[in-house]
Amino acid sequence: MNTIEPIASIMSTNIITLNKTDELETAEHLFKKHKIRHIPVVEADRIMGILSYTDLLRISFADAIDESETEIETLVYNMFTIEQVMANNVTTVTSNTSIKEVAKILSEKEFHAIPVVDEDHLVGIVTTTDLINYMLTQF
C-alpha cells in the first residue's frame, strides 16, 4: 500500500453540487437519484458548506413515515433553507493530500466526506466509502 499516494487518485470528480439558494426538496431528490449521502454547497465552484442526507433526516420525519408520504417532508423542508441546515465550517483537503492523511482526518472526526479544494475551487470529494473501496483493492 502506497501511504503517500494522493487523494486525487481515489476522489470522485463527477461532483453533484447544490447552491445555498436551492430548495431542500431539490437536495433530497439529488440524494435519492444519485444514491449519494453528501452534497457540497457551492457558490460558483467555491465551497460554502456541505449537506448530508443525515442533515435532512434530522429536520424531517423521513424515518417515521411511509416513503409515499411526501406532504409532511415538504412542509418541514419549506421551514428551512439549505444554508440553515448545511455544515458551514467544512474541513477540506487538496488533491495532493495523501490518502493516509485523509483517512486519519476521517477517523478522528464525526463526518464521512471531505471536499477536495485546489486554489479555492472544488475539484472533488472523498468519502469513507472511497477509502474502504481503496483498502479493498490493496488486499
Give an overview of the whole structure:
- The protein starts with 23 loop residues before the first helix and ends with a helix.
- It has one domain (7-137): CBS-domain, CATH 3.10.580.
- The protein has helices at residues 24-34, 53-59, 71-77, 82-85, 99-108, 128-137, and strands spanning 38-43, 46-52, 113-118, 121-127.
- The model has no long low-confidence stretch (mean pLDDT 88).
- The protein is globular and about 50 Å long.
- With 139 residues, the protein is of the alpha+beta class.
- Helices cover 35% and strands 19% of the residues.
- Residues 11-67, 86-139 form the CBS domain.
- Keywords: CBS domain.
Features:
CBS-domain, 4 strands, single chain, CBS_dom_sf, CBS_dom, Diverse_CBS-Domain, two-stranded antiparallel sheet, 139 residues, alpha+beta, CBS domain-containing protein
Short description:
The protein is an alpha+beta fold and 139 residues long. The protein has a single domain, classed as CBS-domain, CATH 3.10.580. The protein contains 6 helices and 4 strands.
